[in-house]
Each structure stands twice: as C-alpha cells, then as structure tokens.
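Sample 3 of the quickstart, ligand S-adenosylmethionine:
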Amino acid sequence: MESKLGIPGNTIEILKKYQFVFQKKFGQNFLIDTHVLDKIIGAAGVTKDDMVLEIGPGIGTMTQALAEAAGRVVAVEIDSNLIPILRETLGEYDNVTVIHGDILKVDIHELARKYNDGRPIKVVANLPYYITTPIIMGLFESGVPVDTITVMVQKEVAERMREGPGTKNYGALSLAVQYYAEPYLVANVPPNCFIPRPAVGSAVIRLTRYAKPSVETADPDLMFRLIRASFNQRRKTLQNGLNNADDLHYTREQIAAAIAAVGLAGNVRGETLTLSQFAALADYFHAADCAK
Ligand code: SAM
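Result:
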C-alpha cells in the first residue's frame, strides 16, 4: 500500500510541472494524506483477486496505492488535462487502465465483463461531491456486480446514508442505501487532508452490498415513490405527503385506509417510518391496485 503522491510535496511538484488548474465544476479536491489513503484501502479490503473501479483518479494518488493492492484497477477520469499526468504517475503499473470519460455515461457492466469476467468488483473513490448520489444510486440500481463501495463523500451525506428514523439526516438517501447495502463509517476526514481544501467536512463510508435487498416488497418502484413523496414534504404528515405527490394517484380515503392497515397512526409523519414500514405500505397499495 504505497502512494508516492500521498506525500504533499510530490503532489505539488506534479501540479506545478503540468501547470494544472483545478476545475471547480469537476469537484476536484485531491488527497494529500497517506494515513487517509491507507484507511480507505484497508477498509475496502482490496486484495490481488480484486478488480477495483476508481471513479475520478485525479493525478493518480489513490490509484497508485490501489495498483499495489489490487489485481486490476480501472480508473475513469473526466478531465482531459489529467490524462497526460496519469500517464506519467501510473506509468510503472501494468495493472492499471485509465479511461477518459464521464462515469455517469460509462458502461460499468461492460468494464466488469471485460476486466473481471463479470465477477463482482469493488468501487473505491474520493468522489466528486456534486454527483455523489447519482453515482451511488446508479451503481445499485443498474444491477452492476458490485461487492463493496468505499468512498469519500461529504460528511453530511455519509451521515444521511447511515441514519435511521427520527434523526435529522434521515431521508430518501438513507432508505435507498440501506435497502441495497450495509453502511459502515470508516473515518471522518478534515479539509486539510485535501488540496485545495473543500468548504465542508468529509467522511469515508463503506457500503457492503446485500446478496438480496434488506426488505422484501412486491413493488420496489412504488416503495421508492412513496419514500420520495414522504420526504419531499418532510414537515407534512404521511397522509398529506402522499396526497400531494404528482406521481401517486391515490385518494385521501385510500391513503388513510393504507396507513391504518399497516398499523400506523393517522397523523404519522413519513420521516418516522422504517424501511419495513414503507415496504408494507407499498405492498398494501400494490395489492389494492392488483385487486382493481
Ligand atoms: N482521486 C483523486 C484524489 O483522491 O486525489 C481525485 C479526487 S477529486 C475529489 C474527484 C475527481 O473526479 C477529479 O479528478 C475529477 O476530475 C473527477 N471527476 C469529476 N466528475 C467526474 C465524472 N463525471 N466522471 C469521472 N470523473 C469525474
């Protein structure tokens, strides 16, 4: 587990050599702390049997450490100015493939097929924060074979992913992540571990994908529409949240009957429901729709 670029002086030298200009629109905050690097790679449990997908390698700081630990690393970077830098910093590794592209458009299924015979991959990244949620939800919802996702995210987002009912950060993202995976907070990371320093605190979180979702429901799509409707209007009751949602078409009476049928009080707020309760609600509506 070695990364020469984790040492701040080496990072600064490379940035100067290529006169690299940071692009805010790409969420570029490069890691300059070897302890944090070691923590991420240790928590990801990467071995020589693994293919790792790294999203946004930057100048290759974490990629170097991943190349030492993994069998194969495929790194997808959007910024064309970083490609020649990566060619230099990763030149000595024959198990690294750099792809110039947008991770939201790359066919990750195809990468897993091509570089890992379709077996589950590990995702490790210091994510660009402006697209954290679409990246993570995309990985889960697309059914890409993924074992674990170990990523640096904004601290508040890490909290949202692991919180349960009745807490400030509990929301649609908590339920979506916990439906697919078990979250584990690896470490909090202060702004001075990056160049340039981000305005927010960061955290490393590991999401271990369940073999099958944590709750069973006849209609996962409906369950997530119910969840989104409940949290779109946090301060409203569940009844009003579901009533006001554009993509749900149940009458006031049907909603009241569903809430009662799953054993909840008429004035309950959506933010107090567990994933199992949302699943029960979805199953009730699904059964009622089917009975029509
Ligand atoms: N991994 C590097 C590190 O830890 O030092 C850089 C992390 S930086 C927070 C995020 C990286 O993601 C940047 O290199 C940025 O250019 C890249 N990036 C941003 N949007 C991307 C996208 N849509 N697809 C692929 N890479 C992206």
